[in-house]
Amino acid sequence: MTLVSKIERIYAGGLGTLKPEGQTTGMYKRQVSGAVHVQKNGIVGDQHADTRVHGGPEKAVHHYPAEHYSKLAARFPHCVDECVPGSLGENVSAYDLTEKTVFIGDIYQLGTSILQVSQPRTPCWKINHRFDTEHMSLFVASERITGWYYRVIQPGLIQEGDLIHLLDRAAHRFSIDEFWNVQLQHRPNIDDLLDLQATRGLNEEWKRRLAERAKWLQKQS
Fold first, then answer.
1. Mean pLDDT by 10-residue block, N- to C-terminus, for the chain (221 residues)?
2. Using CB atoms within 10 A as the burial measure, which of 45, 56, 87, 220 is most buried?
């Protein structure tokens, strides 16, 4: 299969406290050296503060493109020292895989593990608090530089330098970027919503939300 990229860094663990209100977050992950185990719920030793919305089988591993940090640093120059790989709470950092080239349902081999793209990451207010700046989460969303989550198809070991191979691509339309292009529209095309909802490999909760939105738009029209 085609070589796509390689793992530059792996991050895990990392509970910390957000200023100024003191919420606990799992964004403060630490770089891990050597091989780590990837199981159904993610990297062994990884931590999540709010397991209602983070972690679990459908958000087992978070991948964020390393090249996006230069864009964040350019937009928020007062945060340049903090805009470095790992600071958005990702587990896997790599170059050459982006939201425009990664598709919903893609299956990749990383080390001895096999992972499937299940959904984009949805940026939230905690990003603003993490960097002590307003509007960063909005910028991440509007630029569609959100990263994505994998579910684990086959547990295994990963480490820095492991190659990332695309094993299978079920969907040839909905990249992560195109997912957001449809989802972020005020009144998206109903057929686009339904096509996105039907994409093989998409998380079931997103399928439900997209179907409900399409149904609501159909009633309005």
1. 84 87 88 96 90 87 98 96 95 97 97 98 92 94 97 98 95 94 95 97 97 95 80
2. 87
Q: pLDDT per residue over 168-202, tens digit each?
A: 998 789 999 999 999 999 999 999 999 999 999 99
Residue pLDDT, tens place only, 79-104: 999 999 999 999 999 999 999 999 99
User: What CA–CA distance (Å, rounded) separates 176 from 32?
Assistant: 27
What are the residue ranges spanned by the domains of the chain?
3-170
Residue 206: name the closest of 173, 172, 182, 170 by CA. 182
User: Domain 3-170 is in which class?
Assistant: mainly beta
Q: How far apart are CA 173 and CA 59, in angstroms?
A: 22
